[in-house]
Amino acid sequence: MPGRAWHDDRVSAPLPPPHRPPSEHVPNDAAPRTLPNGDTPGGHTAWPPPAHPYAKGGEAAPDTAAEVRQGAAVLLAVAVAGIALGLLWLWRAPRTPLVSDGTSVLLAESEAEHAVGADAVFILLALAFGALSALAVFLWHRRGGVAVVVGLALGGVLGSVLGWGTGTLLGPTHDVVAHARAVGEGVVFDAPLELQAYGALLAWPVAAMLVHLGLTALFGPRDPEPEWDLTAYDPPPPPPGDDRA
Questions:
Q1: What are phi and psi of 237, to 5 degrees?
Q2: DSSP β-ladder status, 227-228 and 55-56
Q3: Where is the composition biased (Basic and acidic residues) (predicted)?
Q4: pLDDT tens-place string over residues 127-179
Q5: Which of 4, 139, 156, 238 could form a disulfide with 205 if both were Cys (CB 3.0 to 4.6 A apart)?
Q6: Domain boundaries, the chain
Q7: CA gap 31, 45 in Å, rounded
């Protein structure tokens, strides 16, 4: 009708709040709450993402330089022990007797298997050294670590090679012809100490790895169980000014 103002409910509806500029300070009580899964009520992910919502505490990052130094110390100590392996091998390995008939050098006992016996003695000694070195490393550093295990394995290989070289170097000479001429015809002398099966060089590191793995599994320290924070299951607090609180 003329002269009568039309009333529209849509005009009197409250307008949405204006967009807040990024530079405007947001008070602490008006800041969006972060849900346990890292999301805000508006659907935006909080950054940086929080730690596990139900766990407390944490372990410090390992010192890589210290672990490398420990691994190098293990490698050096185990490798030097190979000298003892070589001396024991030289002492306990059976000798292969040779004899000269004036024109050639022959085996004094053609049916003997002294060479196989020398390899067997080396393998048994290497297995024993591997077990002892693994036990010593475990007692020294119970927590293990990649660097320590690698140092133990490489030290076992170097120790085997060093023991092999020590035994052959300090044993009978490798110049069999000159030795036969020096002792004379018909005189029995010892053949050089040699390792026929080169796979025996792996006996030390294999034994060390198996023993160290077993000791760590049985007697090594266990990782602590996380402490669960049950307060994360509580409902979020009501917003400020809410009368339902």
A1: -65, 150
A2: antiparallel
A3: 1-11
A4: 999 999 999 999 988 877 899 999 999 999 999 999 999 999 999 988 888 88
A5: 156
A6: 71-217
A7: 14
